[in-house]
Amino acid sequence: RLSHNSAQSLRSLNTPISADAPRTSPPLFARVTQRLEMPEVMQMIDSEVFMAFTTYATIVTLKMMFMSPLTAYFRLTRKAFSNPEDCRSGKTAEERKKMLRSDPDVERVRRCHLNDLENIIPFIVIGLLYSLTGPDLHTAVLHFRIFVGARFFHTLAYVVPLPQPSRGLSWMVGVGSTLSMAYRILTAVLFL
Amino acid sequence: RLSHNSAQSLRSLNTPISADAPRTSPPLFARVTQRLEMPEVMQMIDSEVFMAFTTYATIVTLKMMFMSPLTAYFRLTRKAFSNPEDCRSGKTAEERKKMLRSDPDVERVRRCHLNDLENIIPFIVIGLLYSLTGPDLHTAVLHFRIFVGARFFHTLAYVVPLPQPSRGLSWMVGVGSTLSMAYRILTAVLFL
Amino acid sequence: RLSHNSAQSLRSLNTPISADAPRTSPPLFARVTQRLEMPEVMQMIDSEVFMAFTTYATIVTLKMMFMSPLTAYFRLTRKAFSNPEDCRSGKTAEERKKMLRSDPDVERVRRCHLNDLENIIPFIVIGLLYSLTGPDLHTAVLHFRIFVGARFFHTLAYVVPLPQPSRGLSWMVGVGSTLSMAYRILTAVLFL
């Protein structure tokens, strides 16, 4: 363990030009994977991978948050609400009562939102942990791009709606990207 | 603030008393932003920001978890269940069948719970990533406090219920805090 | 375990053999807790705790993702869909319209999925933050195992379904594990 973390192997990776230059210490997962006895595939928190994850996770979370105002838009235009206190635009009590109904377009957006929660949250959890296992930058960015692209297309296919199997396939592509990252995590870090 | 985050102040924070004492290296995101060629705006994992995030994220997650027993309370007092196996308090088969119904109060708490999932999870994802971009402590804590306060008020406004637009406004304040943090992330770390 | 986490052992871990060798700095939360003036219970990112969290979080997230294909399976075998574009297997327009219905088995799986979102996501958020507070490895792994075991049993009890209170108790065990970790976080890191 000690020799693994030794100056020797670390220097070969992080060697500063001058001996006086500040030295970086091995990041968390470098040490983790050294315990896993993979000194040659020295994995580390690849800062660029984590930055890419941060960017894509933020974008896809914003997309998910956008479903709330979209639901509100359909509720207001279709005049279909769930809560009596939301029906203020109705003039008479009877009109307000009629607005307490479920509308197919509203329900469609709500299902799309729930599907986002069911898929985007696993992506974020698994993508975060995956980013810490030191994957190759291009492989990681490819995973993130495929997932985020698939989810944008999924929303389009759900809300328009496009004929099946466009929605089903985009869902599957997103799940595939997440499963591929989960496989990488479990093969790299399994600790039961 | 700039001078606060500069290499100078970083050293003054981490400098050991004696030159032989172990030296702390710049944390992860300090190195990240160095690559971004912002050596003067040296951002770092501000431990206090991360502690504040940890505290507020835990509190607001506990608030979200509290919606489950609240739903159970309304189901038991309103005698309105979704699953046949939950209707054990009914004595006759007919009585048990009558308990398989949806109740407006139960549905209200459930919508509030789902709204929490739709809003608190984006806050936690974006707040975590935001905490790693090295924001100013006071700005960060302000974001966390506003969000958590808004969500507590939102739950109150939803469950009581308070007349609109109290619920709508508290929802908007929470979303505003999250969007502001997302803007900061994307301007600081964009890596597509 | 205390001696393990003590300043002594930390030094022996991080002290370089020669003064010229690069030095590893105490990890993030070690410094955090030093500020909290707990130098003797020096907490640190225990890499093994984080690896264990990564493993269990990935497994339980995969379990949650599995609810989607399970829902699809019940939708296809029960011929009960929510979206008109999903009813392509119907030959006549009338047959397709009849497939737009809600089925008790489908709704059961969907409730189970939503319950997963309501419970597994808090576990992941709180478990991640808890892993960073430097808990004892055995305590941490116990928390993770109990939670993940309880949630697998919960799914079984919900989908079969098993008679109550098996589902209620497994839900409670999972919540108990999460609350116990949240208590640890708030006592270790409270920063309001």
From TrEMBL, chains A, B, C:
Membrane topology term: Multi-pass membrane protein
Enzymatic class: transferase
Keyword Secreted: no
Principal location class: endoplasmic reticulum
Gene Ontology cellular-component annotations: endoplasmic reticulum membrane; mitochondrial outer membrane
One Pfam family here: MAPEG
Composition bias type Polar residues, residue spans: 1-17
Catalyzed reactions per annotation: RX + glutathione = an S-substituted glutathione + a halide anion + H(+)
Transmembrane segments: 49-74, 117-134, 171-191
InterPro entries: MAPEG-like_dom_sf, Membr-assoc_MAPEG, MGST1-like
EC number, as in UniProt: 2.5.1.18
Molecular-function GO term, any one: glutathione transferase activity
Domain of life: Eukaryota
Residue ranges, annotated region (Disordered): 1-25
Localization per Swiss-Prot or TrEMBL: Endoplasmic reticulum membrane; Mitochondrion outer membrane
Keywords linked to the UniProt accession: Acetylation, Endoplasmic reticulum, Membrane, Mitochondrion, Mitochondrion outer membrane, Transferase, Transmembrane, Transmembrane helix
Family: Belongs to the MAPEG family.
Quaternary assembly: Homotrimer; The trimer binds only one molecule of glutathione.
Cited function: Conjugation of reduced glutathione to a wide number of exogenous and endogenous hydrophobic electrophiles.
Name of the protein described by the UniProt record: Microsomal glutathione S-transferase 1
